[in-house]
Every structure is written in C-alpha cells, then in structure tokens.
Design a protein that fits this description.
endopeptidase fold (from Nostoc punctiforme); single chain; alpha+beta; 5-stranded antiparallel beta sheet; two-stranded parallel ribbon; 200 residues; globular
Length: 200
C-alpha cells in the first residue's frame, strides 16, 4: 500500500472516530438548559396513568410528574428513557423493583420510565452512580419524601442566595420549578449521565 493511501485511510478513520464521539457525547449544561425550558410550561402535577405512544411518548407538556422533567430534558440529547428503560426491563425484568402496589408481571412502556425506582435502577446499571456529595450542574438526584414517596430532580447551574447550595429543577406538585430543595429531603441517589448509550 502507498503512503498516500495509508494517510488518507487514517484521516477517514480519524474523522469517523470524532464523528462517533460527538454523536455519543453528553452535555450536562444542555440538560440543565433543557430542563429549565419546562418552567412555566409544565404547570400541573398529574400522576394519572396514561397510554403513551412508543417510543418518545409523552403526556401534554402542561402536566406531568417529577420523572417527566428528567425524561423530557434528556430527550433533547437523543436519550429516550421510555425506550431505554423498557428495552432493559424486557431483558432484565427480575432486576427491576416491582412494588406490590404496581402488580406488574411484565414491563409496561406506558409507565415504567415514569417511576423513580425504575430510573434509579437503570442509572445504576449504566454506571451513572456518584458516591460523593459534590453535586454538579446536570447531575440527577433522587429523594425519599415524607409521607413516603419517591422524588427525582436535576441539579441546576444556579445556586441559593448564599451561593452554597445548587438549586434543583423538579416537579414536586406545582409544575416544574427551580428551587432550593437539595437538602430538604432524604437523598437516596446521585447520578451523573456521562454518555449516550444503550442498556447493558
């Protein structure tokens, strides 16, 4: 082979590598921006079961639950948790929580991605778990509330008036808000999406 051929082949492979890297890159800054666009649009908290299209199914933007904030924001970067969680649950149903009150015997693409415990398990299986308490913009946090309930939100790039605590973009009952609530509840999970990937 000629040097010219080898050089051109190397150039092509390099371009392909960077193109693929860009396609699978993830921007936490964009996640924050995309979550913030829901403030003022999602005005209601509505946990009703709804039959959704698949993939990329969603309830009307005016309503939703805490998980919908995360699902909607990630979709702007091509990450469809409805499809990803559903496909992983089809292959690994026994590894996901199935609380008695849900009564599930198989995955349900209408609701599985809208349940906090399922998102926690999916994030754990993707290796997104963070064990330190350094909360960065774009991180995803889960909590236990009192009375018992699960909650999830996205760490903002804005801070409380003291400049010490990052705000959280979430929907806890009044639609999507950006608020100082990080330490108001018991934290049960801390996750950092690092790539656009497929379920394990």
């Amino acid at each position: 082979m000629s040097r010219k051929y080898l050089f051109s082949h190397a150039v092509i492979l390099t371009v392909m590598f960077f193109a693929c890297t860009a396609a699978f890159a993830f921007s936490p800054e964009q996640l924050v921006r995309d979550a913030r666009t829901q403030v003022g649009k999602t005005l209601l908290y509505d946990p009703a079961y709804v039959r959704l299209s698949y993939p990329m199914g969603d309830v009307p933007i005016i309503r939703g639950v805490c998980t919908d904030v995360v699902v909607r924001a990630l979709r702007h970067q091509g990450i469809d948790l409805q499809q990803l969680v559903h496909e992983d649950m089809k292959r690994n149903f026994r590894l996901y929580p199935n609380e008695a009150r849900w009564g599930l015997k198989k995955p349900d693409a209408n609701i599985d991605h809208r349940r906090v415990p399922n998102l926690q398990r999916y994030f754990e299986r993707q290796g997104y778990t963070i064990t330190d308490k350094n909360f960065l913009p774009g991180d995803i946090v889960t909590w236990d509330l009192s009375p018992p309930a699960k909650h999830i939100g996205i760490v903002s790039d804005r801070k409380d008036p003291s400049g010490k605590r990052p705000l959280i973009i979430h929907n806890i009952g009044q639609g999507t808000q950006e608020e100082d609530v990080l330490y108001q509840f018991t934290i049960t999970g801390h996750y950092r999406v690092t790539r656009v990937g497929n379920p394990r």
